[in-house]
Amino acid sequence: MQNETENQGQQRPVAEHKSLSEQVINEYDLAVLFGISTRTLGDLRRNHELPTIYLNRTNRVYSVAEVLNWLSKRIKT
To answer: Which residues contact 61 (CB under 8 A, 6 or more apart)?
Structure first.
C-alpha cells in the first residue's frame, strides 16, 4: 500500500466529460452565474423555488439540467 507522499507525484485519472445536462454546479458559482448574492440564492432555495441537491446539512449543489428547466418556466412572454 502506497502512502500519501508517494501518491503526491501521481496525477488522478481524467474523468470523462459529461453532457451539460448531467453536470452540477455549486452554490457560489451559480450565484455568480446569475449575478446575484448567495443570500438571494439561499432565499430561493429556502422558499423551495429553486431545485436543490443536498449533499449534507451545509453543502448543496444544483443540477444544471434542473436549473435550466426552472429558468425556462420563469420566461415571461
So the answer is: 24, 25, 26, 27, 52, 53, 55
Provide the strand spans (E) within 1-77: 24-26, 53-54, 60-63
Domain locations in the chain as residue ranges: 18-73
pTM: 0.67
How far apart CA 5 and CA 72 sit, in angstroms, is 48
Q: What value does the mean pLDDT of the chain take?
A: 83
Render pLDDT for 7-40 as a digit per residue (tens, 0 to 9).
556 666 665 666 655 689 999 999 999 999 999 9
Residue 39, amino acid: R
CA proximity to 36, closest of 57, 50, 19 = 50
In CATH terms, the fold of domain 18-73 is: Arc Repressor Mutant, subunit A (1.10.10)
